[in-house]
Structure formats: C-alpha cells, structure tokens
Write a structure and sequence with these properties.
It contains seven helices and 20 strands. By secondary structure, it is of the alpha/beta class. It has three domains: 171 residues, Lysozyme-like (3-Layer(aba) Sandwich); 52 residues, no CATH class; 63 residues, SH3 type barrels (Roll). The strands form five sheets. The chain has a seven-stranded mixed sheet with strand order 1-5-4-7-3-9-8, with helices on both faces. The chain has a five-stranded antiparallel sheet with strand order 19-18-17-14-20, with no helix packed on it.
C-alpha cells in the first residue's frame, strides 16, 4: 500500500533508529509518555542519536506541536515489541516526570486530532480500546478498524502512565465519533454495586508481582505487611498503603540482566535525578543498592560508575 505522513507535522528530524519498511499494514496506534515536558526539537535530537536505540513515528511536544521522526511507512523502535511496532503508529507525548505522568490538555487534544488524521489516511473509521491485553493481541481487526495498544503490555513499565491509560477509552470514543463510526457506549455502573478490589503488588505496572486481590482493605494490608517492599493499590492504580516492614539487606555485588533497550541510567538513585543515557541490553554488575523515588525494588549502582538503574526492570542472574 502507499503510505503517507500527517499534514499536522510542524517539525521533522528523521531518526536512523528504525527497521525499514513495515512487514504489516497499519492497524494499531500506540500512545506513549515521554516522561518529560519536551520540545519537538529536543525529542528529535534525542532520537537522532544512534546510541539512543529508540524512536517513534511521531511526537507531541509540551505545546502541542507534532514532530515526525520515523515515517509511517517504516517501523519505529518504540514499544519493546517488534510485532506491535510493525503494525502500529507510535506517538510519544510530552508528560510530567512522575506518576501518573499527566499530559497537558493541549497535548491530549492534539493526540485526539492526530489519531483522527492517522485513521482517515489509513482508511479506518473506528478506533477501538478493549482495555485487555490478551483480548487485544488475539483480535483480528476488520478493514475499517484501528486498535489501541500500550507499551506496558510489552515491557515492565508504566507507559503511557496511569493518567493516559485511564483515558484510552475516551480517546477511542472521541476519535471514532469524529470519524463517523459507531461508538460503543458502556452503560455506567452504579458505584454502590461495584466490587472494589485492592491489589498487592510491588509496582502497579508489573502485574506479575501481584500477591493477591482483596475486597477488604485490611486483608490487603496484612498481605503487604507479610511481603516487604509491596504496596496496596486501588482499582485506579493509586497506592493506598505501603508496607512498613523492613526489607532484608541486599548483599552486593551481584549481576543483573537488562533485556529492554530503553532503561534509563540516572546520576543518582531516583527518578528525580537527571538521566545520563539508556542502558544497552546486557549483563551488569551492581555494587550498591539504595531505595529511591520511582522504583519499588530499589536502585542499583553500576560497577562502571556511570550511574544508577532501576531494579524494577532487570532480572538477577
């Protein structure tokens, strides 16, 4: 098929970080959060570095300007999934630097308009959000359907952040309505009849760490207390209780394996420290562990002294 790019683009700086022409037609859109109130130029400069080993088709900066970094005909390196990126238009959106990684309104409104434009040019009249990973990835879209996916389904991270994740259904509805497609409205449930589950996990983004789900908050708190480093989350992913139990002392040095390509190295133990660069996949020696902002399992100092990485996204070997 003949691929085109959006006329909404205000800035173009094509990145070398892509895999060439897609092997699958476009039937997905994957919004991401940058974790920073970036400019289109700044994001372009970051993706222009081959050492970054990451890119996206588009970016929306803090003022709502759209940047083009990988043409729609090509597969970007954005979602930690070759299968997803081969068929998805990926969009990095300027956001706050801490959870829930909120977007400014101008960014969200531009995201809606950009998704409408992408759907129109690719012959789609309906944008769908199932909110379920297995259902989405096993669904075969019809000719006029575009599907929403999220980065957190393919990597141990929060992206696109809980702010945007909670608005994926709204995004799908607004885009579909603008395209003239049929909007599937959900009948609002009576809050008094909803079962409110409390989940015990290390981080909200990592469902694999879940110890249990409880209807009674006190039972969830007891579970967290029995598992140092765990928290209780409500249905929206908000922390409502954090275990005060002391975590066992971590013996260093030890080895960890990094499998993702966009793990940040920071100057200190926390997301409040500046980023140094991405940590390439491989095996690394951790010589010190500290707790810090943005990581449930702590931060590890690399033997090379270049900086610290979150231990949430590595595997000990």
């Amino acid at each position: 098929m003949a691929y085109t790019n959006s006329s909404m683009v205000a800035y173009t700086k094509l990145s070398p970080n892509h895999s060439g022409q897609r092997t699958h037609s476009i039937d997905r859109i994957t919004p991401h959060c940058v974790v920073g109130q970036c400019t289109a130029e700044g994001l372009g400069d970051w993706f222009a570095k081959s050492s970054t080993q990451a890119s996206s088709n588009y970016g929306i900066d803090k003022d709502g300007r759209v940047g083009l970094y990988v043409e729609e005909k090509n597969r970007s390196w954005c979602s930690s999934s070759n299968a997803n990126d081969q068929r998805a238009i990926t969009i990095e959106c300027a956001s706050d630097t801490t959870e829930p990684y909120a977007f400014r309104d101008v960014v969200y409104q531009t995201l809606i308009k950009l998704c409408i434009d992408i759907c129109k040019r690719n012959g789609k009249n309906k944008l769908i959000w199932f909110g379920d990973k297995d259902k989405t990835l096993n669904y075969s879209p019809k000719s006029g359907e575009m599907i929403l996916t999220v980065h957190r389904w393919f990597a141990n991270k929060s992206c696109p952040g809980n702010w945007m994740y909670a608005r994926m259904g709204d995004l799908a509805s607004k885009v579909t309505a603008a395209l003239g497609g049929e909007v599937e409205s959900e009948k609002p449930a009576d809050d008094s009849q909803k079962i409110k589950w409390y989940r015990v996990r290390k981080t909200w983004a990592d469902s694999k760490t879940q110890k249990g789900a409880y209807k009674i908050l006190n039972n969830a708190k007891k579970c967290a207390d029995q598992n140092p480093g765990y928290k209780v989350f409500d249905a929206d992913g908000k922390v409502v209780y954090e275990s005060k139990a002391a975590e066992p002392e971590v013996k260093v040095p030890f080895l960890v394996k990094v499998s993702i390509s966009d793990l940040n190295i920071r100057k200190g133990a926390g997301t409040d420290y500046d980023r140094v660069q991405f940590c390439p996949p491989g095996v690394y020696t951790i010589v010190e562990v500290k707790s810090g902002k943005g990581s449930a399992t702590g931060w590890g100092r690399l033997k090379s002294e270049i900086g610290w990485i979150s231990l949430d996204f590595v595997k000990r070997v």
